[in-house]
C-alpha cells in the first residue's frame, strides 16, 4: 500500500528543535525545488496495491535517499546515518521537522533501487530535462521578440545533438581464467558439504581440495607464467570442477531439492556455464568467447573492448548517451553485452525529435559514427553530421583558400562542441558514482547509473540558475566561456 503525503512544508516552516531556520540558498533546498515530486509520486503509487501489503515509504524518501547516496558518495549505512544527523537532508526527503532517529534500515536502499528501477529514473530524468529545456527556449523566444528578431529556423531543423558512448566499470576482481576456476571449485566444494550433511552417506566424497588449493597458489604466486603453465593450470582446475559437478549430481538425487539455498542454486547454474565456456576455450586454444562470464557473483558483467591507453578492456555496462545544446544528458541505450555504438545514431536522432519536436540542425560525434549509412540518414533529413567529408581532403589553393580555412574552422568548432559530452562523462565519473559501480545486481546497478545521470542534469540546472543570478549582479564572463558547454 502507498499513502500520499498531504502537504510537504516549505523550508521556512520546517521545524528545527534547536532553533533557527533553513537557509534558502542551501544546495539541498535548491535541489528539492527543481524536482517535480508531485508528478513523480503520481506515477510511483501505481506500483502498489490499494489494499494488500505494508505501507510503503514515500517516493520522495526513496528517490531522495538514492540521490543523497550518489551525490555524497556514501555507502548505504553511511547514507542512513548522514540523514539522521542532517536537518537539511531530512527536509530534502519531505520531513516536517528534524528527527534524531534513523529514517529506515540500510537494507531498504536495495529495495528502493529495485522498486524505482532504471526505467522510472530515466522517465524522471526526461521530465526534469524536458521542463528545463522548454523553459530555456521560452526565455530565448521572449528575448528575441523583445529585440524584434525573426527566427529563420522555426519550421526547420534546430539545435545541436552531441552523442558518444562510454563504459561504466563494475566493482569486480580483475578476471583471470585460473582464478575464476579456483573460485568455482571452492564454491562447488561448499555445495558438496551442504548436500553431504543432508544425506545419509557415511563416507564423504573426495574433493582433493587441499591439493587443488596448493596447485593454484603455486601457480598464482609465480611472477612469469608461460602459456604452457597457464594451460596446465586451467586443465588442472577443470578436472577438479568436473569431478565436483559429477559428485553434486549424484548427491542431488539422494537429498530433497530444497537442501541448497537460493544463492547456492544460482551459483551452481553459473558454474555449469563457466565450466562449459572454459572447456570450449581450452579446446579451441583461445581466451575469448561470446557471452564470456568473468564473475560468478555478477554473471551479467561482460568484457567491453574500448582500446583505451589505460586498458584494452573494461568490465561493466556500455552506455550510448546524447546531450542537447542546453547540456541535458540522456542515456539512449544501456547494455551489458558489447555492441557497436555507430548503430545507435538513427535511434538517438529520432529520440531527440520526440523530446524536442524537431530534428537537430547538426549532430556532433566522433569518427566511428561517420559511416556511409549514417551520413545518408542525416543528409536525407537535412542534418549536418560533424567531421570532414568523405574522399580526399581539399587541396588549398589561392582560389579556395578562404573556403578551406572556413571548413577547418567549422571542424575545430565541431570538435570543441563534441568535447562537452566527454566532459559530462568525466564529471559523472569523478564527482558521482559512475567511475565504479558497487551495486551487485544487474537491476540495482542500472538504477545507480541512471541516478548519476539524473544528478548531473540537476547540477547543470542549478549551475545555470547560479549563473543567471551572477548576470543580474552585473557579472559578465568571457565569451570563450559561453561558447562550449563545460562540465
From TrEMBL:
<dbReference type="InterPro" id="IPR008490">
    <property type="entry name" value="Transposase_InsH_N"/>
</dbReference>
<feature type="domain" description="Transposase InsH N-terminal">
    <location>
        <begin position="22"/>
        <end position="115"/>
    </location>
</feature>
<dbReference type="InterPro" id="IPR025668">
    <property type="entry name" value="Tnp_DDE_dom"/>
</dbReference>
<feature type="domain" description="Transposase DDE">
    <location>
        <begin position="363"/>
        <end position="456"/>
    </location>
</feature>
<dbReference type="InterPro" id="IPR047710">
    <property type="entry name" value="Transpos_IS5-like"/>
</dbReference>
<dbReference type="Pfam" id="PF13586">
    <property type="entry name" value="DDE_Tnp_1_2"/>
</dbReference>
<dbReference type="Pfam" id="PF05598">
    <property type="entry name" value="DUF772"/>
</dbReference>
<feature type="region of interest" description="Disordered">
    <location>
        <begin position="138"/>
        <end position="157"/>
    </location>
</feature>
<protein>
    <submittedName>
        <fullName>Transposase, IS5 family, putative</fullName>
    </submittedName>
</protein>
Amino acid at each position: 500500500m502507498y499513502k500520499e503525503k498531504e502537504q510537504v512544508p516549505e523550508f521556512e516552516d520546517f521545524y528545527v528543535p534547536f532553533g533557527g531556520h533553513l537557509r534558502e540558498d542551501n544546495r539541498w533546498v535548491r535541489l528539492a525545488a527543481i524536482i517535480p515530486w508531485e508528478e513523480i509520486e503520481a506515477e510511483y503509487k501505481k506500483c502498489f496495491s490499494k489494499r494488500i501489503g505494508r505501507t510503503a515509504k514515500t517516493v520522495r524518501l526513496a528517490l531522495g535517499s538514492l540521490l543523497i547516496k550518489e551525490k555524497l558518495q556514501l555507502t548505504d549505512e553511511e547514507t542512513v546515518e548522514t540523514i539522521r544527523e542532517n536537518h537539511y537532508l531530512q527536509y530534502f526527503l519531505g520531513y516536517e521537522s528534524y528527527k534524531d532517529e534513523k529514517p529506515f534500515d540500510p537494507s531498504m536502499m536495495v529495495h528502493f533501487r529495485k522498486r524505482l528501477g532504471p526505467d522510472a529514473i530515466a522517465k524522471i530524468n526526461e521530465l526534469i530535462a524536458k521542463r528545463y529545456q522548454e523553459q530555456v527556449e521560452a526565455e530565448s523566444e521572449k528575448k528575441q521578440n523583445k529585440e524584434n528578431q525573426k527566427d529563420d529556423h522555426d519550421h526547420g531543423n534546430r539545435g545541436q545533438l552531441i552523442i558518444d558512448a562510454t563504459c561504466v566499470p563494475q566493482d569486480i576482481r580483475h578476471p583471470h581464467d585460473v582464478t575464476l576456476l579456483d573460485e568455482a571449485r571452492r564454491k562447488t566444494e561448499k555445495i558438496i558439504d551442504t548436500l553431504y550433511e543432508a544425506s545419509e552417506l557415511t563416507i564423504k566424497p573426495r574433493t582433493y581440495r587441499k591439493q587443488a588449493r596448493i596447485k593454484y597458489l603455486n601457480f598464482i604466486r609465480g611472477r612469469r607464467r608461460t602459456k604452457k603453465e597457464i594451460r596446465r593450470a586451467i586443465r588442472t582446475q577443470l578436472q577438479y570442477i568436473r569431478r565436483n559437478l559429477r559428485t553434486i549430481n549424484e548427491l542431488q538425487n539422494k537429498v530433497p531439492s530444497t537442501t541448497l539455498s537460493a544463492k547456492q542454486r544460482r551459483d551452481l547454474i553459473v558454474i555449469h556455464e563457466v565450466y562449459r565456456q572454459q572447456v570450449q576455450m581450452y579446446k579451441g586454444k583461445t581466451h575469448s568467447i561470446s557471452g564470456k562470464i568473468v564473475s560468478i557473483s555478477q554473471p551479467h558483467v561482460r568484457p567491453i573492448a574500448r582500446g583505451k591507453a589505460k586498458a584494452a578492456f573494461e568490465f561493466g555496462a556500455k552506455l550510448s548517451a546524447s546531450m542537447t545544446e542546453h547540456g541535458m544528458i540522456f542515456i539512449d541505450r544501456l547494455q551489458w553485452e558489447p555492441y557497436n555504438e555507430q548503430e545507435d545514431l538513427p535511434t538517438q536522432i529520432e529520440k531527440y525529435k520526440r523530446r524536442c519536436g524537431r530534428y537537430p540542425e547538426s549532430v556532433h560525434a566522433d569518427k566511428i559514427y561517420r559511416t556511409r549509412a549514417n551520413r545518408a540518414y542525416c543528409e536525407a533529413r537535412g542534418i549536418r553530421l560533424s567531421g570532414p567529408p568523405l574522399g580526399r581532403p581539399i587541396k588549398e589553393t589561392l582560389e579556395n583558400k578562404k573556403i578551406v580555412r572556413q571548413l577547418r574552422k567549422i571542424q575545430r568548432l565541431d570538435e570543441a562542441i563534441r568535447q562537452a559530452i566527454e566532459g559530462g562523462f568525466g564529471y559523472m565519473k569523478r564527482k558521482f558514482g559512475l567511475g565504479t559501480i558497487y551495486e551487485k545486481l544487474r537491476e540495482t546497478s542500472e538504477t545507480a547509473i541512471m541516478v548519476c545521470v539524473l544528478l548531473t542534469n540537476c547540477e547543470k540546472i542549478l549551475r545555470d540558475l547560479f549563473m543567471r543570478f551572477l548576470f543580474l549582479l552585473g557579472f559578465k564572463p568571457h565569451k570563450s566561456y559561453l561558447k562550449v558547454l563545460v562540465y
